[in-house]
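Why do we bother with holo predictions? Because pocket geometry can differ from the apo form. Keep that in mind while you read this record for flavin mononucleotide.
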Amino acid sequence: MSEKTEKRNVVLGITGSIAAYKAAELARLLVTRGFDVRCIMTECAQQFITSTTMQAVTGRAVATNFWEESEAAGIGHIQLADWAEALVVAPATADSIAKMAAGFADSPLLAVALATRAPIVVAPAMNVNMLTHPKTQENLEILRARGVHIVDPDEGALACGWNGAGRLAEPTEIFERVRNVLSAQDFAGRRIVITTGPTREALDPVRFISNRSSGKMGAALAREAYRRGAQVHLIHGPIHEQLPRAIKCQEVVSAEEMHRAVMATVASKSSMPDIVVMAAAVADYRPSEAAQEKIKKTEKSLNIKLVQNPDILHELGQLKRDERKPLLVGFAVETGEEIENLLGQTRAKLKHKNADMIVGNFAHDAFDLDTNRVWLVDRNGRQQEVATTDKWRVANKILDAILTLG
Ligand SMILES: Cc1cc2nc3c(=O)[nH]c(=O)nc-3n(C[C@H](O)[C@H](O)[C@H](O)COP(=O)(O)O)c2cc1C
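The structure, written out:
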């Protein structure tokens, strides 16, 4: 089931890497989402970022020293180890990783890492040669074998001047991994294809017809499905969302491209997804022809002939006439404020498309917003309103409803 609140206890360990400043952003993401965050900093970490910064971001005293821990942090290291529901070490230096692998406890952070029964997430950050050194790789393997979740560093330009792997993973990536580690994996083993965003239908090489969809709803569904253990494939139009690496993202532009991409996922029985959620705002029509060159402003008026695009949801619905798979969820958007009209359209769409569930929403509640208000109508006649709330919460309600359908 989805968590009602994310008020979970997280200990954030910060070690002496040049990337330590990014720990402030990670703490901010966690705190904003409702997590209770307490930081422990190594002595070296304090050369890079001050405990004052971390205290200000988390609103909690920061543990920096065994001998002052009771007044400074208001809680001893063993209490901290017991309090933690997750320990995140970000950034994690080669030195701290080696000490964790060997079981050292000569700093409050290492002592907590040894004493806690909570899951541990480690996000390494270091020079590429330190990272690829056999000893570091061996230490990471020891931690992995122990069940520690390693968030692999990114590749790119490093602060030390080298280019390669070693850059701390983005704070959003670490944040989503922490949420994943803390969540019930009730979608484990399920493959889910989600579409999101607008499509663009070319008029000429520089112009297109599109819509106001931001892709935020489908992106939220993808993140929450990943958090709950699903294997997620997101097929999206042009959107501006950062998604966890574990989500397979496939970018398309036009409705025809989206059609091809979605149909490819259901082409073979052996790799058939368990669930398809069509959250994309696929253009119903496209220009019958896209001009090869920019259309010139010569005429007083311009007629553009539009032709219908393929109806992806309908096609998927026909495909599953004989079998229940994939479980099919679509979206219906209406303008205006008539709830009965929206529900009528949603029910009609459920039947016409042979879907298992349709999520009805109003354009003014949904487009380009971080919140949404929806009605879930399913094949068993169930109807549920989800009052205006964050899209990630709406996404969890939709996923909860999917679980009730099998
Ligand atoms: C400017 C500077 C940047 C450093 N950056 C890193 C780094 O990104 N990763 C790393 O493993 N060590 C880095 N080090 C070395 C660590 O700070 C050093 O190994 C230290 O002992 C780590 O201690 P700690 O893990 O207890 O914080 C850096 C050192 C300096 C002086």
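Residues 69 and 75 are 7 Å apart (CA to CA).
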